Amino acid sequence: MSSQINMSTQKPVNINRHNPALAMILSILFAGLGQLYNKRFVKGIILIIVEVSFILTLGNFINYGLWGIRTLGTIPVVDHSIFLMIYGLISIIILAFAITLYIFNVIDAKRTAEKIRRGAKIPGFKESLRNTWDKGFPYIFVTPGLIMLLFIVVLPILFTVSLAFTNYNLYNSPPRKLLDWVGLENFHKLLTIGVWKETFLSVFTWTIVWTIVATTLQIALGLFLALLVNDPRIKFKRLIRTVLILPWAVPAFVTILIFAAMFNDKFGTINRNLLSIFHLNIAWLQDPFWTKIALIMIQTWLGFPFVFALFTGVLQSISKDWYEAADVDGGSRLQKFRFITMPHIFYATAPLLIMQYAGNFNNFNIIYLFNQGGPAVRGQNGAGGTDILISWVYNLTFNINQYNMAAAVSIILGIIVCAFAFFQFRRTRSFKEEGNI
Amino acid sequence: MKKVLSLVLALVLVMGVLAACGPKRDTEATADKPKETKKTEDVAKPDKLVVWVNNEDKQKQALQDIFDKYTEKTGIKVEAVPMDMLDQVKTLALDGPAGKGPDLFFQPHDRIGSIVLQGLADPVDLGDAKSDYVDTAIDAVTYDGKTYGAPLVVETYGTFYNKDLVDKAPETMDELMEIAKNQTDASKDKYGFLMEAANFYFSYPFFAANGGYVFKKDNGTYDVNDIGLNNDGAKKGGELIGSWFKNGYIPVEVNPDIMNGLFTKGNTAVVITGPWNIATYKDALGDKLGTATLPKIDGKVPQSFVGVKSWMLSSYSKNKEWATDLMKFVTNQENSLHYFEVAGEMPANKAALEDDKVKSDKLIAAFAEQVKYGEPMPSAPEMQQVWEPINNALSFIAKGQPVDEVLDEAVQTIKDNIASSK
């Protein structure tokens, strides 16, 4: 091996001795040592300074944080488990950054050493700085945003996720008591213990039914009205559109509270003035079935204007030529709708429609404001007949202080919404990059 | 190579986590040590005391007057930080350990249990002043045999009546039922008697009058395993409440808005609710409005739930002696009367509650009287598990389901919940 190199290069001895493995090991031992070995002195010194200052300034904090998140405190009152958990999470995020940089440092040392060994010309400090600036430009500018994102978005999520694995509830809350890690016990409870299991399953079923039925209805109604109003034979389009957008213009919580009053079984205007004509008296707020019907109707009413506006916009953009061509070919009304209108509308709006489903899945406002998740159902614990998962979480957190269980349910919620969004986004064209459609 | 590298680094990280060691502390010094009670005279005066007050204009104003007087008397500044009463506990749990908490905070007594569980408040020594407060109020702020805080305000509910529709307040339950029978005409929206009967807070007296109770109480300690909401007395109370719905005296759909609306329109003769409605009712009915204690059952005024709002001593306070002194000052006769006049809430101070200023206010006087018959809402943290099941049971009773079964189920649920939440 050495003879080959001897023949092909001009400075054989020097190259041979330079060992990438050694550079790598030196860099692992202490950032910058490998670079020094590579004779990249400025870079090496900078890296050494960075690591020393990192250890000096953040070493204690990270040590304390890691200890905190592992033990969640050892002395009640003095240690506050919640604080320790947050310190720990912050430490882990900082550590993740540090480790990423460290890996780059090691890779850099190794690569440079390999280049030296191959005899390639190594750029000087100034030149390499310019290279980094040119190649790394987007990354350098993204980094501050990324750091912000980590602390504003990721940290709270990590915190909730962590809570689900603790025993944090009213009887075990800091500062007086310390929290403990309990692993998957909360999820286990949710799926096996009688009270929790039954309530979870019935709430979960209704949540799914609610999401699918209410959202589909609001989209169907929006679509139907958009098609109607878009028909060339319809006059006063502007007026009709304005009227149809009105439900959207009133804040939802106002509407819901008014509806709650209107649906009152005895004093509400719906039973009293409308249905009494037909000698009907429906228990809108007392019978879980009718409460569900009422909720779905209200949500349809609240939700269709947005879909209507969306579809109206898209309908305008479909070229008339397509329909004329279809007419020439003798396409029927239904065929034109199926092969021209539908694909256009849905390809353009699918992501927004998915957001509608996700929104209703977690539509806390309407459930809570209309009837507080009621009416009560015999044999069901902690959740009423129309509680969806998110309003149940609210109940768990604020009424019975079961923070750990609430966090566990939240995680399940999060996973469902993520999965939902992920698969659907993958399937819609709007999120594919150009050229892959 | 990359894999080996990342493995090595992951190992380093895991080692780091495991090796991370905690701060060195003297465990002995920080363990619970008995707190010595000192007298204020022995302790140096702090420059200022921080008090969290409920964020309500009239209350803030009344308290500011009192705090100014205290500063005049002792030279200690009082910094009043307005914060909604219901947010205070949450905030204190984080601010206290961080050293930003107050010396005193203001809470309804039924949260004492959970506050003590979280270790946020310290017991206080009211000394001789203890006898200055209404017994029910002292009872309310007593938890595990210790006094947590000085009560400022008591609150309970009673009977309101419309003098146009009934000559005098119904004195017994039978009289009230007579009124309900004669004056109720649901088709014309006329009612003899309305209340939120499916809300346990208001329905409790009818359980208690017959021998029902939430938790058995012995010497100021609740036995949370002994729940008396499905004993014979409670069931008798449940039947009584059920009969109002069955006879059509009270519609199932009644809620506070509807009740207030019907009463202020003059369509209802008698309602049972709290003094916070006085202002609204008086605006609508004027002199026709009368108040009284709850109608007697078996010759006795039934026990209503009494709520007490009190000052509590933060366990993070560094000036506990002076903070205690301040809370006693705020709740003394003169100052709680001033608070009553400005903020309109009934004083928990015995002498103040008996004062002419309270008694001459005829509408309030009935509630002041009712407080004597009342009993404090249980402050055990387990009470949190009681409300929902029992309220649900009441709504089932309202719909005509068998009282027996429904109450048994509710008590079982409460027991399950208490067990599963520990």
Automatic annotation (TrEMBL), chain B:
Swiss-Prot/TrEMBL keywords: Cell membrane, Lipoprotein, Membrane, Signal, Sugar transport, Transport
GO annotation terms (biological process): maltodextrin transmembrane transport; maltose transport
SUPFAM superfamilies attached to this UniProt entry: Periplasmic binding protein-like II (SSF53850)
Domain of life: Bacteria
Membrane topology, from the record: Lipid-anchor
InterPro entries in the cross-refs: Maltose/Cyclodextrin-bd, SBP
Keyword Heme: no
GO cellular component: ATP-binding cassette (ABC) transporter complex, substrate-binding subunit-containing
GO molecular function: carbohydrate transmembrane transporter activity; maltose binding
Signal sequence coordinates: 1-19
Subcellular location: Cell membrane
PANTHER family linked: MALTOSE-BINDING PERIPLASMIC PROTEIN, MALTOSE_MALTODEXTRIN-BINDING PERIPLASMIC PROTEIN
Family: Belongs to the bacterial solute-binding protein 1 family.
Protein's name according to its UniProt entry: Maltodextrin-binding protein
Source species: Falsibacillus albus
